[in-house]
Amino acid sequence: MPRINSAAELEKLRKGILSKKDPNKPSIAICAGMGCLVRDKGRIIAAFEEEIDKKDLKTKVGLRATGCHGFCEKGPMIVIYPEEISYVEVTPKDVPEIVSRTVLGKKVIDRLLYTDPDTGKKATHQSEIPFYKNQMRHLMGNSTKIDPQSIDDYLAVSGYSALSKALLEMSPKEVLEEIKKANLRGRGGGGFPAGRKWETARNAPGKEKYVIVNAHEGELGAFMDRAILSGNPHSVLEGLIIGAYAVGSHQGFIYARHDAPRMKNNIDIAVAKAEEYGFLGENILGSGFDFLVEVHLDIGIFVSGESSALMRSIEGNPPEPRPKYIRTSVKGIWEKPSVLNNVETWANVPLIINKGSEWYTSTGTARSKGTKLVSLSGNIVNTGVAEVPFGTTVREIVYGIGGGIPKGKKLKAVHFGGPMGGSIPESLLDTPLDFDELAKLGAPIGAGSILVLDEDTSMVDVARYFLDFLSNESCGKCVPCREGIRQMLKILTNIREGKGKEGDIELLEEIAEVTGAASLCALGKTAADPLLSTLRYFRDEYETNNESVKSPAEKRE
Amino acid sequence: MIMGKQKKTSEIIVQIDGKKVKAAEGMTILEAAQKADIFIPTLCHHEKLEPHGLCRICTVEVEVRGWTSLVAACLYPVEKDLVVKTRSEKVDKIRKLILEFLLAHAPNSLQLQDLAQEYSADPDRFEKESSFCVLCGLCVRYCAEVKKKNAVGFVECGARREIRFVPEIAATECINCKECFELCPTSYLQAAFVLTESLAFSTDSSPTAIKK
Amino acid sequence: MAAGYTFEPRILGFLCNWCCYAGADLAGVSRFQYPPNIRVIRVMCSGRVDPAHIFRAFSTGLDAVFIGGCHLDDCHYVTHGNYDALSMVYICKKLLEHIGLNPERLILEWVSAGEGIRFASIMNEFVPKIEKLGPLGKDEGLDEQGLKFKLEAVTKLIPYIKLVQSERLKVPVRTEEAYNKFFNSEEFNRLFDELIADKLAESQIMRLLRERPHSISEISEILGLSPHDVSRHLHVSARNLKAGTKAVDNDKIDRIINKHKGKPNSLVQVLLEIQHENHWLPQDVLDRVSKKLDVPISRIRQIVTFHETFRLNPVGSDE
To answer: How much is the mean pLDDT over chain A?
Structure first.
């Protein structure tokens, strides 16, 4: 494949790919996202390959393993084109019937359709399923159409057109201005305006600058980054290259988990293909801009998702954070200006460049623009990855998309942001999804994990669980974090075992205050946040030594 | 030094506890305070080592450009119009609790006891912890930065973090050195050394000793 | 048992010069009868006695140890050395108990210079008790090899135990009551377990590995520890079960290092790749990486123990 050296060549290639696509040719998109793959172990993909081979349909039926479709609860999922028929909870045994009846016979198999648990209605297309109906899938919408290992699939859905526009029709400053106007805020948990970060790095002294994709996704309950990165890696790559152009960086890093081999494989293939086609390397698209990407793996600890720790790790050191009195966008990796952004943040960039900041800012609230990926888990009917515009209320997400609480239980709390976030009670469910609104309530949105908790949950346990997690996953360098978490955990464990003492709550609050104020990095500073939010809204559970609220497992004892 | 081309480091005036202090660009608050004879307590700081900022005892309150925040004095660089308070209700609260955390590990450390008096820290506030290392890292950093031998290092992370000697290096280097011993605020470093000596140096005369 | 052979306990006594020794002398001069099984060493103060002395006594096969000093608060030295003896004996008793010996084989008594009769009566009680217990280890059911091994492990650890004692196991008030209270408390037990017993286990594991390679299940059986604890000790001390054996050949390592162009900052990536291919990291592999990438071994140790991602021992193999 010869390198593409101009916008014209790119468009020619794209036209060529599109012309080869037969809109009437049947194809099957099988979800190979983490959830479905774990359930099915790749047997459905193998079954389809076998069946298609047997029936000699290799050239007549397309088959692709795609990224996460989003509706993890009902996996394994497949979508059959061109009718876009959606089947849920598919098993290998269903495969021959699917091929003969639906793919060839164009008839729907009723038992494989999604059934609404409340109305009994069946849905033939994904868009009819309540889980999908209430979403706005700007980022995830193409997930069923793309084989992550194929760059042509991405080109077919206008992939890399934003890159072409940015490199060839806009100056780096113009790109920067557009991102600033769009008010793109970091999706990894900080919510910091990406445009401002890029500008700081751009204006910082020095020729060597770095851009980094934080694909660490350590937040408990967050699984949307891997859905995008392993399902549509080119969207992130495109955003990264555009960002590098705006900042003036020629070296990028993708910092990924070491324990997700499939995702790493997809990233490696994407990078290799992008180099082959000329989207990475020297003189990209004939613009004169050079850029290369390196993939780095983490050692598996939560703290290495923290920006300064991540940069230490890329340097080959243990991932220990450093105080950020001088911003990492000024002094990051090897003391050079480094822009670190989350996977989802980068994935938004091509959208903004293609459709413009005006279009982008038409979605969302006053200060939180665009859409947000959320991962629903916990005591909720529909688990999975959803994409909603900012401003959607939490109630709409939990009930409209999530389907409510299973087994007829009542909702007790919704927890955002994992071990660095907080919970809100049922009474605050009409809060809109917004960086600042939720932060005000002590439950910052974090990376977007939404953990739904029902009436049987002990909130003391929730706080204790997150502290327990942090005590092993913090680096242990500074005293307030290491010792603060240690002591808070001890007190909470005592309370949970009924051994709480008078003055415990006040002591917890004091430790939380010091840990929050004096810790070196964000992990320590927010370590006590789940505890503080549960104290804010569920204080009585601490005071009554909560013998009465036990988890279902404890009740059975 | 190239004559005539030496750049004059610019002078910055900061305010520490109401006093105007002349500091040079690139200095930290701690350095500026020491120059003006203003005392800020430290534990993990040493003039021969790069500041690490992990004990957080040197936390001070700063105000600049309308923002107030709590920062580590040993690391925060001075800047124009910086107003520093080395004592305040919040600062004292932080130092008191940090001392109480550490006293649960090393109640007999003289350094900690001195500071504890000043901040009324109660050594019995928390249940006594077994490990009496305060993890100040002075030994690790001294051996890495000054002696450049890296005979002792950190292992593990989070609540399980501790220091350990590297037996292969310690067996040959430490016997004649031990300069880090006097930096240790407790006697844990000594204890860790004799522990390594007894457990890991393959100096026993057992005929089946595996040679390293 | 051979005909006509009766067990005669061999007891070593450390008597303080000012009180107990004088008292024992008085017992002799006054012809108070007591069994002759004790051999006396005169020390200037009971506080002089070191755990090393006690364990050396047991290691040479003596059946019991007696320490005699002045009554509390009557020590002839301003430093009140007899309190030091008191705390030392508490710890030694706990150590004896921990390795399976009867702690009653070690006693500490206060005898003043004029209490000759007291000395004799103490001996008249102590010797028959030890007679009943039998030779060292017999009553406790320990074989000679095992006992020697355990005593050696403790002896090696004594410099460490003394530092721990002086820093962490100090009693702030010098009264008998305070000492009794502390050494019988939960806190003391917990500190002992975490600081001393834990390291004792490690000492024994190291000893075993020095003799020959052992598997985790073997070690666990010999020492009576759970496999989880054994594995934890091995991980933390960054020791391998099979110290010295090469499980990965050098060419493979070099190939991985060269793939990352031998840059020191590729350390984490190199270690991850070796871990991925080999499933564990032998000690000499880490040494080689340290040399080739020119990074200190202490940094490598920190990274590999930072998280359970890295395994320092073969996994799943059943040797």
So the answer is: 91
